[in-house]
Design goal:
alpha/beta, Alkaline Phosphatase, subunit A, 2 domains, four-stranded antiparallel beta sheet, 15 helices, globular, hydrolase, Sulfatase
């Protein structure tokens, strides 16, 4: 029989061992922050080659982490994109949330909810834009995903990022944390111009300095529109820097996984709601000194549905079977690793009737369009912009170039194929070129397989236009009763399909 002294020694040893194990577990669970911009294209950051937009803080994170050069969204539309990120599922697999302002099916878990249940302190500050369907008879609501929620707005600052510093500073210090920091910048309205603080953000951007893409008109009104947009990108960047400085002050920056991304492309013609790179490609920066083993630019293909399983993996949480993404952890460890061959995207109703699907593989983007008779002119707020109206004026004078004319093109091709490396703006459709016939056939087959395996479908009747396509003004006719009659995949119960399709 052990003596009392030996028993006490053994007990103390066990306690210290448990304490060490607990400490090691906590050390292995990094903090996580997602910085999500609203309506910002991938090439509007300095680290992605934009010489005019000032983003020094994002650029610094990219220099010390990974800049993903082939990162893609699943939807170039606000709430469908965000809902896809938070569930790790394609939009049509989220139920009604495939369309703008619609809820995620109740039974689908959100990854912050899993983090919260596992001991993380979770907070959302800024734009929310996500909800679940209301519980039916005998159903319970989803568990709360966030310990703290605020809109990120204060008097004189409607950016959505006004409270990021206080949330970071006032967090519980005895828990790992997850922050969903979602800015309203750079959504149209350009409130940054009216709320500008030169002492914090520097001088406003000048119209003469902006970069005008070939599908926009190069005129004073469009240039000022872009300059105001750049101002919002810079305010978003500034607030990221404030949080990073606070993390550094607290001594936790090295053990915090930071992602910077956007929900869709800039709110200009031929960007937001487009399946082309100008709408669907996102700047994606990952920074985590203790977890990322190399720094630089990655050419590996990733999808934003991969963020949820990645975050759950680094937090030591089980990935639910509902998530269709794949963990990006191998990419953190090895620059030459890969996690997927294909990235899929979709465009459903956002102010206007639409059904488009896209697949990216290697250097190629293939798009199919099941409403080719309709133009892809962009969302209503973009249509109301000076930039769009300047294009209308050029059209009326017969002065549009081919890239600008694509904004109004109707009917559109049913199939589009592009080499995104040699044709970064996707202006040269290769689908009828004989030398690209094999690529077209192969990617059409892959896209059809993905649609079939994930339960996608093309309803006979889709949600109709609710805004005028020329002016962006609400239609006089009330179409609310017909909105969402049948969302894509609903007839096949796609929200209960967990198969990811080809990866």
């Amino acid at each position: 029989m052990l003596s009392i002294a030996l028993r006490r020694t053994a007990l103390l040893f066990c306690c210290f061992a448990l304490l060490d194990a607990s400490t090691a577990l906590a050390a292995d669970r990094p903090n996580v922050i997602l910085f999500i911009a609203d309506d910002v294209s991938w090439n509007d950051y300095g680290c992605y080659g934009n010489r005019a937009a000032r983003t020094p803080n994002i650029d610094e994170l990219a220099a010390g982490g990974i800049r993903f050069d082939r990162a893609y969204l699943t939807a170039s539309s606000c709430s469908p994109s965000r809902s896809s990120i938070i569930t790790g599922r394609y939009p049509h697999n989220n139920g009604k949330a495939a369309e703008l302002h619609q809820p995620i099916s109740l039974h689908l878990p959100w990854f912050p909810e899993i983090l919260k249940q596992s001991g993380y302190y979770t907070a959302l500050s800024g734009k929310h834009h996500m909800k679940s369907t209301a519980p039916g008879k005998g159903e319970s609501p989803r568990p709360e995903a966030f310990d703290h929620v605020d809109a990120g707005r204060v008097k004189g600052d409607s950016s959505g990022s006004a409270n990021w510093l206080s949330v970071t500073r006032d967090r519980p210090k005895d828990q790992p944390f997850f922050f969903w920091f979602a800015s309203y910048d750079a959504h149209r309205g350009w409130d940054a111009d009216k709320q500008w603080k030169e002492s914090e953000y520097g001088p406003m951007h000048r119209a003469e300095d902006v970069i005008v893409p070939p599908f926009l008109s190069d005129d004073p009104q469009t240039r000022q529109d872009l300059a105001s947009y750049y101002n919002e990108v810079t305010r978003f960047d500034y607030r990221i820097g404030v949080v990073v400085d606070e993390l550094r002050r607290q001594g936790v920056l090295d053990e915090t996984l930071i992602y910077v991304l956007a929900d869709n492309g800039r709110p200009f013609p031929r960007a937001k709601t487009r399946l082309h790179d100008s709408g669907m490609k996102t700047g994606l920066v990952a920074h985590w000194p203790k977890g990322i083993q190399w720094q630089g630019a990655s050419e590996q293909l990733v999808s934003v549905i991969d963020l949820a399983p990645t975050v759950l993996s680094v937090a030591g949480c089980q990935i639910p079977e509902t998530m269709q993404g794949v963990s990006m952890l191998p990419l953190f460890e090895n620059a030459s690793a890969s996690v997927r061959e294909y990235a899929f995207s979709e465009h459903n109703w956002h102010d206007y009737e639409a059904f488009g699907r896209g697949v990216r593989h290697g250097d190629h983007l293939l798009i199919i369009n099941r409403r080719p008779e309709l133009a892809w002119q962009g969302p209503a707020d973009s249509v109301r912009s000076d930039s769009h109206q300047q294009l209308r004026a050029l059209r009326e004078s017969g002065s549009l170039n081919d890239a600008q004319a694509d904004v109004f093109l109707s009917p559109r091709p049913e199939v589009e194929l592009y080499d995104v490396t040699s044709d970064p703006h996707q202006l040269n459709n290769l689908t009828t070129h004989p030398e690209h016939a094999e690529t077209r056939q192969r990617l059409v087959a892959v896209l059809r397989r993905w649609m079939d395996e994930t339960g996608d479908s093309v309803p006979d009747k889709l949600s109709p236009d609710t805004f005028d396509r020329e002016t962006g003004k609400p239609l006089a006719e009330d179409t609310s009763d017909s909105h969402g009659v049948m969302t894509p995949g609903e007839d096949r119960s796609a929200d209960h399909v967990n198969a990811p399709g080809p990866r």
